[in-house]
Amino acid sequence: MPTAPASVSPPSLKVERSAKTLRELSLEKMRAAILGGHFKPGERLVERAL
Questions:
Q1: Which one of 4, 16, 24, 33 is CB 3.0 to 4.6 Å from 20, fit for a cystine?
Q2: C-alpha neighbours within 13 Å on the C-beta side of residue 26
Q3: Where are the domains of the chain?
Q4: Does the pLDDT of residue 45 top 70, yes or no?
């Protein structure tokens, strides 16, 4: 006995949005840069230059 084809739903058009704020994203990047050795110990970090 043949089975009915499974119903296939169309792909969602919903745009996923990160719940993280710009502050949180910046903090993660800075931490990764510090831990990765991008900045020297005691180096002055100037916001405008970053």
A1: 24
A2: 5
A3: 20-50
A4: yes
